[in-house]
Write a structure and sequence with these properties.
The complex is a heterotrimer of chains A (498), B (332) and C (118). Chain A is built from 22 helices and two strands. Chain A has 498 residues and is mainly α. Chain A has a two-stranded antiparallel ribbon with strand order 1-2. Chain B is mainly α and 332 residues long. Helix content of chain B is 72%, strand content 0%. In chain B, α10 crosses α11. Chain B is globular, with a radius of gyration of 23 Å. Chain C is built from four helices and no strands. The termini of chain C are far apart. By secondary structure, chain C is mainly alpha-helical. Chain C has one domain: Helix Hairpins, CATH 1.10.287. The chains are: A mainly alpha (498), B mainly alpha (332), C mainly alpha (118). At the A-B interface, α2, α5, α6, α7 and α9 of A face α4, α5, α6, α8 and α12 of B.
Amino acid sequence: MMSAIFANLPALQVILPLLFAPICFLLRKRGAAWLLAFCVSLCTFAVSIALFMQVSAAGPLSYAMGGWDPPWGIEYRVDSFNAPFLVLLSLMFCVTLAFSYKSVEKEIVQPRHALFYSAFMLCVAGLLGIVITGDAFNVFVFLEISSLSSYILISFGKDRRALTAAFQYLIMGTIGATFLLIGIGFIYMMTGTLNMADLAVRLPSVMDTHTVRAAFAFIIVGMSIKVALFPLHVWLPNAYGYAPSAASVFLAATSTKVSLYVLIRFTFTVFGAGFAFGAMPLQPILLVLAVTAVFVGSLSAIFQTNIKHVLAYSSVAQIGYMVIGFALASHAGLSAGILHMFNHAVMKGCLFLVAGCVFYRFRSARIEDFRGLGKTMPWTMGAFVVGGLGLIGMPLTAGFVSKWYLIMAALDHGFVGFLIIAAVLAGSLLAVAYVWRIVEVAYFQAPDEVHENGKEAPFILLVPAWFMALLTLYIGIDPSLVVGAAESAALSLLGSTP
Amino acid sequence: MLVATALSCIFVRDLFAVIMVFGLYSLLSAGFFLSLKAPDVALTEASIGAGIAPILMLGTLALTRKRSEPQPRAKKSLRSALLPLVVVSLTGVALIYATLDMPYFADPAAPIHNHVVPRYIEQSGQETGIPNIVTSILASYRGYDTLGEAFVIFAAGLGVLALLGFLSDGSGREYWQFEDTANLRHHAVLHVISKILIPLILLYALYVQFHGEYSPGGGFQAGVIFAVAFILYALVYGLEAAYKIMSPVVLRYMMVIGVLIYGGTGVLCLILGGHYLEYGVLSDYPKHGQHIGIILVELGVGVTVASVMMTLFFTFSGRAKRSVLKKQGVET
Amino acid sequence: MTLVFGLFNYWVAMVLMMIGFYILIASGNLIKKIIGLNIFQTSVFILYISMGKIKGGAVPILTEGTEIYTNPLPHVLILTAIVVGVATTALALALVVRIKEAYGSIEEDDIHEKDGSL
């Protein structure tokens, strides 16, 4: 029995949340849907840890869905690049659920809880499916599962702008997915296969054709929409800003990273770095856009009045850092980019959890609502300060580690490298500005009447927030585990290029 | 023809007409698919593009309004008018650029005809025992994609229920008890015709469902056809009569049961010692097992699709009625 | 000349895609946007199905004595994509209904004036 479970771990990773989602949909009793979802999330997490251990010990593993060998059937492939992502996703799944019990109760009327949790599980399953699969078309299918369910999650928001945000995201997301579909169609046309590993073998012979170049462009542009890379980020601030708190925590921490994962996967594993950065002008384009993203995102964050919007624009900027790392395409750059994907997920998760706590108390999360919170909600604000320091990149936090590696990677690139370092430093200064604005309001302004008798957020909301805050600190102090994972991920990507 | 209908969608202002033209467009593309020897796809496109999608769009239109407002030209700056054109032209250039090195249309030497696919064509008969190659790939070789597809449909049903199934005032009351106002139900001719037609459509749906291994069709198409028969019934006899036969609560269970039949088949394979969705283990003879598995998952898809489509229709039309009643000041 | 004949089918699909894409991003009415999205997607389907065609190929259902079949794999992919498309459409339409209820309009400009979203 045990060996049967171990042999089928890759399948279980995705079908656990996938199959329990519809069951969850039927549970009408208060709390039942949450309980089921939480149990599933724990199992999913356990599976992802087991997979991670298996891969670290024994190298990449391949699982043939339906018992049909690739390329005829669909292959699940776990290697040292995606195994850490599975862990990250499942971890965020658990943390968000721990948080959502109280938060969802406050923000969503009871009969719709089951729908919310069901959509949430579908979203997780979709993202896990994207990450784990080794089949190009399967990426598209699971991308749509996760996208549709994230539109649903966002539209659960109370503000009417949640609806328009979801609609805008739906339109842009579908354009992105359709571009991906066009791109996959083109490479299928040239090679006759959909399996990523098989594509990597067969593409080089047709590499020098217009069709493959266009396919690459379509995949990159399509996924850049989902990554929210500047200037295709317009959907993100409202989508994260008006979604229910629990949904914004999860989406902010994971969904753009998964899209970036797809981008990296296609670039390195399918097309190969030599093509992407040699034949195609990917590097300069990405670098310019990413640096612009850092500035535009950070500057916009400074002028927002709603904390969720501040955090969302800051995500646009932070995505810029990740893309810089990816665009450097060296081993050091790639590891820095991947490292920042993890660290940012942890920090942004922490900050959105804090925003959720404040929202829980005051039913809004404008900056005015933070007045005097340093006194009335010291624990909440403590977590905020830790996360904020992380965003800035202070030493002893996770943010410092990834920025340090990024700068180190940029040093190898001469003059361009110096420009990048300048951009990273300037971006950090801007981050100081937007984080300080909130900290100042919280610690140095007296609360008004409404906020005077604000209480600390419930314990059960603080636990996940502090868990993420401590994780931020832990990674800052002892980064060896995450850095090791990121480095071996980068190695497996660069090593697998033909 | 296709280009003409698509173009007319740009210029026609009346939304009702646009939707009709769109339906026509879908029907034409279905015809095109048929001429390209893709009957399965044609059947689906015809029932979806020319059937379900326009019905839903019309439902939305009834809930919103009829004309697409003439856009205030003066307000539109040059930039906002040019930007779409530039983006579209760029995309277009990229698309045409891509075609330059493509294998020619219908060229037998094209890579897609010579890699991966030959095995499906040569072996699927022995490996799954099913003549319709599309069905074998859909339900077995790439069955996992189809599982995903069933879940996408499920997600759509869930989303529409979440958005429209509950009153927006947050009271959370559900929606299916109110007066029946259908005005088609007094047409004797319609009654007679539909009495004959609906059983025929249902029969056809069952045929498509269970004959999908031999001829074009399968769970998905059958589900849609089944739902269309039901929608016809609801249109003629009124929503209330339709609720009596198939209440939204039952449909909700059916949605879940449908996807679970599919997913459960996969789990059963796991328990019997195979990989996920490896139907071969369902029986002592792999070929026989494949057959059982394919029938089961097609059934799952059919149930899911039919119930989600009906749910969509009920939810949209239920919403329409409620908003009418609200206007009249009737408390439901 | 062979170039034109060989690629004509694809070009038609490309033109259709561009028309759909244009409707999608240029029109201010939300329902029209959704129709544009559908045309865009349907044209991608046409592209896929066109590539599956093979000279003299029969319908991909095994029968005695037939040697050449149309490529069935694009058909399978497009079946999936059609379903995904209709699911997206249904969800988008439901959102439009709710937007209309919340804003009283389904025109992009009106909604933008009301609270700056979209």
